[in-house]
Amino acid sequence: MVKICARLEAHGACTDPLCTEYHQVHICELCGVFCASTKWYEAHLAGKNHRRRLGGLDGRQYQCTICDVQVSGQRSWVQHIKGKQHCKNAEINGLSADVAPVIPDALPGKLFCGVCEKYIPTVLWASHPQSPEHRRKEGYAAFKIALEEAEKDKHGVVLSEGLDFGIVESADAAQGVSRTLTIETTVPSSRIIIKNVSLSSLFTGTQSPFTVTTAVEGSVLVYRRPTTIGVRFSTPHSGRMDDRLEIIFEDTALRVTFIVARVLKAIVGSQADYALLKPTAPFQPRQRTRAQPVTQVVPGIPPPSNNVIPYSIKLPVAKISESLSVALSETSSRKVLDLVRRVFLPKVLDSSTYSRYFKTLLWAEEHRMERDLEHYDIPDAQLERHGQYYHLTVLGLAEKRPSVLVGDNFLVQRHGAVEGHWYEGHVHFVRQASVGLRFDVSFRGWSAQQRYTVRFKLNRIPMRRQHQALDTAFAFDKFLFPQRAHILRLVARPGVIPIKPFNPLIATNLPQLQAVTSIVLQQPGSAPFAVFGPPGTGKTITIVEAMKQLLKNKPNTRILATAPSNSAADLIASRLASTLGPDELFRLYAPSRHLDQVGDELQPYTHRKTLEGQHGCFSVPPLAIFKRYKVVVCTCVSASIPYGIGIPRGHFTHIVIDEAGQATEPEVMIGIKTMADNATNIILAGDPKQLGPIIRSNIARELGLEQSYLERLMSMDAYDAQSGHGLSVVKLVKNFRSHPAILKFPNERFYANDLESCGSKNVICAFENWSKLPSRKFPIIFHSISGKDDREASSPSFFNIDEVTQVRKYIQLLRDDRQIRVSHTEIGVIAPYHAQCVKIRKALNGVADEVKVGSVEEFQGQERRVIIISTVRSSREFVDFDLRHTLGFVANPRRFNVAVTRAQALLIVIGDPNVLSLDPLWRSFLNYVHLKGGWAGPKPTWDTTETVDESGEYDMLIRAAAVTDMNLLARRIEWAVGENVKTGASNEGDDDDDDNDANADRPWRELE
């Protein structure tokens, strides 16, 4: 039972500001809001929140009469009626897929909660009002009403609008700017006194940048004679500041006290930047549009390069089953996950179920990739004709969003064409912003004014190559699920030891020397060997040295060396080329790779095939010549080519995978399951603590596709870095990249404090004593700034103009500094959101064009003297805060690890500490920087000496603080007018899937 305030029941008002009893009088059943007076209740009923819920009550749940299912929300409805299963059901019933939804008055077994705006099962209805989510939303709605009430003019007193100082340049903000707020009474006979003027700082924990400069307490308002209150804004910091000015009045004639509040806000930044970078259009989520079904496709003309490799083994189609496709099309990701686990995945993962398990994950990923690719469809495209080619402009092509390769294809339909009739256009060449397509000769009716609908089609070749490998019978436990018993002793042979390294630096690095020695002395067919290479420890140098030593000491060695990307494979090839000639080393490229994308130093190690009327493309030499090479280097996906052209299993004595942590397990298995035999040795090099492969499907990610083969092995007992040292794994510990201060935090957090800083002092200590460092011997800066994350048009990706400005300021400081010379190519800017990268490049245009700006994924494996990180996310809505959606993948530990370990000499992180500190990892890092003196900007709002709670409930704490502020405001209003609002507690928000938005910032992997 709730105890009602006795004063409220007896007198209709309670003036005790410390009263803790319940002040409920009216309840809005629709909104679940408590109102402490009839006046407030009537105001609530007329308010926009209540009217919005009233008008949208029957629009929250839709019934599809074709599929006989309920769909939640208009956005989900639009996706549902464009889905494959819905369109198929409509076709079976001879109905249009574009059916109008039926809005049910009620759902069987469910009741609608207006506060939470969703249907609740009847069996849970009684307890639902006490749920943390309901109480949080209930309290927030009540607070909104209290705040709206506080901001209303009352009793004939009229205040000017809230003071918005707008965008204030940094120099002006440092000196201070002033504004005035006017107050006047519109009632001639009234007698109203200003009793108090105060600021109510909102959750900052620091001193407000706003100050009231006019003493007006005790002043009496006079009719037609406005009273002014001066407010001054002054701060040395950049970013967005806000506060609330609360004025208490007393109407002495009516003996009534009341509050009127006004919002104060200002932005310290660059007006020019805001004009340049502001959203191009208000954000509107892009709706998935599938205008017409595909019933007939006229095949296009593929490029000649499609047939330059003489495959002897046919690639399987490996189409997803209809039942799995239907399951993956379910709107609730939680239901999909449960269904896939129960129905499609084997109960255990072992050698006998390995293929089925990973094939299912591949299909889940492919299903998601197809959906994501739809976002790039062009509903109103134009084609330029140049002879037999049609040029199509593709936005984002230069940034590989999406990635388009020679051999890919599009579906094209002329506006006004027969429904369902499409032409397939094959990509013959890719330029900076356009692609060249070829269609069948029946593709007619082109004109410069003609418009087309263009759909992107997923190139399934990489997926089919993985399915092909998984379908092979090769499934030895010692390769797939190695145990300690599978690890064979190292065998020394005469003349093998001691090893004389080709690279003399390895002789001074004991872990590297141990890794090379172990690889050379492995018995044939031993369990896979892992070179665990944390950032900057030289894992690629180590495996290249190992390959050279194998070839030197074991003349019959044949090596297949792979990596997930062409850039990583090129690095291996270029380092091997220093000792191997073109008759020993072959760099295998897919025909889709353009000749100009390969450097001159590697061209002699390739094979080309001349095409009629063209420059030619990469191919493979005849089988007899191919077999002569001692080392073949290619990407993981292209490792299927040797199998496809007839290279026998066991031809390669060693299969080496560099950057193995960035490849999916099925990718790595392309080379292993098609080329290895019982005597093959497998060497993996990488870091499972850094970024894994890019996975777009949250279902596939949850079920394990994001875990690399290397990471899975490293989690097994046989690969313990201590007990398995030298036999199954070697952990490299000498870091040659980063300053000790930059290395210290990730070293302790991810690498058991094993790493040693061994970089050149001239490089890593270059920024010590830099004049802009808050602490002269600590080359890390965390720049605290409270900005605003924005989105624009139909892009779900976030950007933050305030942080863009700050990034450019630091680059200008570095550029203009005469103490330390640093070129633009030595600076890297990392941002987790694609939109932020675009805005930063725009701001640097003409200022620092050579500075590389990119995602964390784009910087993995790279380094720069200076790294600047923009974290982007910022929020002031702490009451309705959702940690998962606000921080998103900014809080991913691996992404964090990669980002902070790219810097050699100077690391600058720009972000909102009030948001970042909600994540335990980020809070620990912020504490480290603050305690070492590297903090710039407004100080932390928490005690940085306190031990961090790894349970990660800081979002709940900050919401509790926000609720406290809500209660205080409501209580002040109660005290002033005898009315009250009862607010509730807060807890976690919904756990709905947000995969659509997240994937906007996951780059597309370029798989050959």
Question: If you consult CATH, what is the topology of the largest domain?
Answer: Rossmann fold
- Helicity range: 25-40%
Rg over alpha carbons: 33 Å
The first-to-last residue Cα distance is 67 Å
| Count of helical regions | 33
The total number of structural domains is 5
Poorly predicted spans? 53-59, 978-993
Structural class: alpha/beta
How many strands appear in the DSSP assignment?
Answer: 41
Average residue-wise pLDDT = 85
Globally, the shape reads globular
The CATH C-level class name of the largest domain: Alpha Beta
What does this molecule look like?
There is one protein chain. The chain is α/β, with parallel strands linked by helices and 1008 residues long. The radius of gyration is 33 Å and the shape is globular. The chain starts with 5 loop residues before the first helix and ends in a 9-residue tail after the last helix. Residues 53-59 and 978-993 have low confidence and may be disordered.
